[in-house]
Amino acid sequence: MKTAFVFPGQGSQKVGMLQDLYNEYPIVKQRFEEADEALGYSITKLCFEGPDTELVKTANTQPAILTASVACYEVLKEQGFTPDIVGGHSLGEYSALVAAGVLNFKDAVYVVHKRGQYMQEAVPLGKGAMAAILALPREQVVEICEEVSASVGSVQAVNFNCPGQIVIAGETAAVEAAAEKMKEAGAKRAVMLPVSAPFHSRLMEPAALRLKEELDKIQVNDAQIPVVANVTGKILTNANDIKESLVTQAANPVLWEDCVAEMVNFGVTSFVEVGPGKVLTGFTKKINKDMELANVEDIASLEKTLEFLKGVR
């Protein structure tokens, strides 16, 4: 029996996250202090006190979630629990890479801060959008995006989260047109998302190029724990391959359903979501209902997960 640790992406943040773990575990406090130092401002204060209007800004959200997620991982590690394989959704892939020894924590905090900034700057506010499409087959979502791209403007499927949930992104008018067509084609819902940029779409290419420059400045190591890459849904361990994958990831779809399938194929029977929220736990239930699931985001969930992990050793 193998265990995967998976790390959440943007959208899982909330004011007050990890406050109780920060007060209880010195390693959590240490990681938050290191993040503050790397950023040159207090992400700690922003996480614990807000305001939410600042925390939800992409350049703040990304280092906040990474710091919270890695801090949770450090607590599990101190308790003697490490995974057989790791993965993360979008931004969460950086948390997974810290856990796997690929990226230094402070480097990762700084890089994801820049990643958020570059993503936001790649497309002017109001020019890009995203929508969640529920209960429409993958092939139909892709086909309709291609039709709308040819007639209205750029739109594509960017997050293959789980059966029945795919997110599309692109130019605002094209996303709206595609969402309408998908409802006509039988989608249960097509919901415009409250985001500030069309993440993981081809419109993020300028951000990917700028991100490459940042990644070239830092040390990237071979993985000590296998990592599943968003862009392929396959395991990577080589440093150069991982760096290339991170650059590609910024402007290409997240194949999360494929990532989970790869981990199951690797022999995983238990998934622990490490970091704020339970989004990935929900996705995993829909992808493979036979998996054992746990999460760590506060003291209560930590205690349950420690008991869970003792049982699956």
TrEMBL record:
Residues 6-305 form the Malonyl-CoA:ACP transacylase (MAT) domain. The keyword Acyltransferase applies. It catalyses: holo-[ACP] + malonyl-CoA = malonyl-[ACP] + CoA. Keywords: Acyltransferase, Transferase. InterPro entries: Ac_transferase_dom_sf (IPR001227), Acyl_transferase_dom (IPR014043), Acyl_Trfase/lysoPLipase (IPR016035), Mal-CoA-ACP_Trans/PKS_FabD (IPR050858), Malonyl_CoA-ACP_transAc (IPR024925), Malonyl_CoA-ACP_transAc_FabD (IPR004410), Malonyl_transacylase_ACP-bd (IPR016036). PANTHER family: MALONYL-COA-ACYL CARRIER PROTEIN TRANSACYLASE, MITOCHONDRIAL. NCBIfam families: fabD. This is Malonyl CoA-acyl carrier protein transacylase. The gene is fabD.
